[in-house]
Sequence to fold (163 residues):
Amino acid sequence: MKKLAANKVLCMQPVPQTIVSCRDKDGRNNALVVGFTANVSLDPPMVMVGIVPSRFSYHMIKEGGCFVINLPKKGYKKEYEYLGSHSGRDGDKFAALGLNWEDAKYINAPLLTDCPVSIECSVVDSMMPGTHELFVGKVEAVHVDEEYLDAKGNILWDKMDLM
Ligand SMILES: Cc1cc2nc3c(=O)[nH]c(=O)nc-3n(C[C@H](O)[C@H](O)[C@H](O)COP(=O)(O)O)c2cc1C
Fold:
């Protein structure tokens, strides 16, 4: 028999483990851990990220109109924990961690090279239902480490050791 839980917060589990990377108008890169991510449309392919306005990354995404969702491997734990607990406001997190990155192909943001999947997104809409602004992003490109693609370019999710 079911009973009512004492708390309604974060009642959807598991929460996705992603790192969102972005860039400001002066070219400064930043990244943060984001659990509020989801697929929202198949055609056209769209996803969403939920960002709290107090995050240093928030204005980068709001003003830049784009972001990258990176899916980390289990071995990226140290970086994941740091990016989810330190703010770019207090220092350059890319430099502090020595992150490997490259420019995205279609948007003005960095891809995290050591994450096996990086998804380039352009913001097409947003809404603020509560604590987080939900940015809906059109998927511009999905970059995947070669070893996780079959001959037709299909992603081999089962081979990946994602966090
Ligand atoms: C597991 C986990 C999930 C998180 N999910 C979110 C999220 O969905 N949205 C958000 O704005 N912050 C989220 N955060 C918090 C940010 O990652 C954290 O505050 C970060 O330091 C912000 O960095 P910034 O100020 O450089 O943007 C999460 C943190 C952790 C550890």
Remarks:
- The beta strands are 18-23, 29-34, 37-41, 46-51, 66-71, 101-103, 110-112, 117-127, 133-144.
